[in-house]
Design goal:
Layout: H1 2-13, E1 23-34, E2 46-56, H2 73-85, H3 92-104, E3 109-119, E4 127-135
Antiparallel strand pairs: 1-2, 2-3, 3-4
Helix pairs in contact: 2-3
Length: 136
Amino acid sequence: MENRAWAARSVVSGAFREPVRPDRVLIKDLVLQARIGIHPHERAPKRVRLNNEVEVRRDVRRGADQIAQDISYEDLIAGIRALIAEGHINLVETLAARIAEICLADPRALRARVRVEKLDVEPDAEAVGVEIERAR
C-alpha cells in the first residue's frame, strides 16, 4: 500500500511527467530567386523553394505573449534573403548548410531541417534538391 501511495504522489508531483517536446518554427514553400548552380547557364537567377523546420527549446515558465521570447520566422526569412542576395552559390548543399547556420544562430534553436529545391531545372521533375538536418 505504501508503494502505491508513493507512486501516486510521484505522478502528481511530476516525477513521471513526459519531457517537454520542443516547439517548431516553420517556413513552408518559400520561393525566391537565387543564383545557384555549377553550370554557366545557371548564373542567371532561378526559382528555388525553401522549407525550414527549426526545433526550439521551450521555456515552460514563460507565458508572455512577446515576440522577443521566440525565434521569429520573419528574422529567419530576412537572413535567408540576405544570404541569397550575397551572390552566386554553386551547390544547393552549400545553400542548405548556410541556411541551417542561420537557423541555429539563436541559442534556443536545437535542430534545423532545411530543404532546398531548384524549380524549373529538370523538365521531367517538379523540383530537384537536397534536404539536410543539423543539430546544436
